[in-house]
Amino acid sequence: LPPYKAAVDAGVGSVMSSFNEIDGIPATGNRWLLTDVLRRQWGFKGFVVSDYTSVNEMMDHGMGDLQTVSALALRAGLDMDMVGEGFLTTLKKSLQEKKITQAEIDAAARRILEAKYKLGLFDDPYRYCKPERATREVLSADKRQAAREFGAHSTVLLKNNNQTLPLRKSGTIALIGPLANNRSNMLGTWAVSGDNTTSIPVLDGMKAVGGSSVNILYAKGANITDDSSLAKQANVFGEKVGFGPGTPEDMLREAVATANRSDVIVAVVGEASEMTGEAASRSDISLPASQRRLLEELAKTGKPLVVVLMSGRPLTIEKESQLATSLLQVWFPGHEAGNAIADVLFGNYNPSGKLTMTWPRNVGQIPIYYNHKNTGRPQDNSQPTQKFRSNYLDVANTPLYPFGYGLSYTSFSYSPIRLSKNSMRSNETITATVTVTNNGNFDGEEVV
Fold it and tell me: 64, 98, 262, 377: least surrounded by Cβ within 10 Å?
């Protein structure tokens, strides 16, 4: 709860109730959470809104029918029922049956009206929704430039053997992969209203940034997945996973032939946007078999293999990491994806991102933490197979890539850490200072 307490202390105007249970009671109907803690202990004065249909979904928690759970939520301290319409369709009946009070309805309505008043919506209900503003600002040149910069800054360089990156703006590059010339997945998940037709694919970005002196050969190489049932689920908001052209074998042959004509291979692989995020859990978070096979065959050519990986989460890519000469994690960079990725690949921007999540070697290591011990019997690192300590028989305890990991095209050195003082009281702070020096041949940024 500390992050939420901090938000309330900072003056946040609304809070959303979650789907989860606390001591067997869903948060949306939990009076201890929404009233005792949030309002009485923390002093929150704004309004509380349910998550999408979380009032209705309390029925699936066994809390009663729609009328019962709607009354439960109102009495708990919920002010707004998002989408579910339980408040709209049942509260009048509950009031007549004395299951709720007029005062509870009035309190919820007052908090919502107060928020509208503070936002100026009584003076102008469309103050923040003017069509001419949207026409002027959405995807304007400055917004697209910002998206390009954000995309480049968020990339994380995980491997770079032989200084393969940055690429030279000359010679022949084989650009291969199911996400190499793709628009529909660049925005990532929860971008349902985004226009993916205006996104920049990697192929277009590579041509634009690389210039006329570099020859870029393209081949799709593989489908994102050959599993039609997985593809159907990933295509819930439109086609994210397509098939072809041709058979998987045809595409693979074309990719290998294209790679053999190049100086270096750039393989753009990963998840489709709807294979990750909310309601998109996977028990196997490795690359789909179609893409694993593609990378294996490309590696056999002996050409330098730069893997550009798109995903919304850590993946289990231990073998793929070994196959790659260089590995760049780019997530889902947005409308300017192609340009942002090309800026990094060609060295217009030196990657500075660090991992915000630990990457496991396999799913059996999950959960894998960076900030506390997993066990009461931690392993002595000098004895990794010591009996009766917490270790695996078939894999190291260490992650594939730890939290905070990220390389650069240059190298940095750190001075010894200096502290502002050597002791402190509970209400005091200590300032730690370190000098970071760029010792390499590229300008760069370093996240400390």
Answer: 98
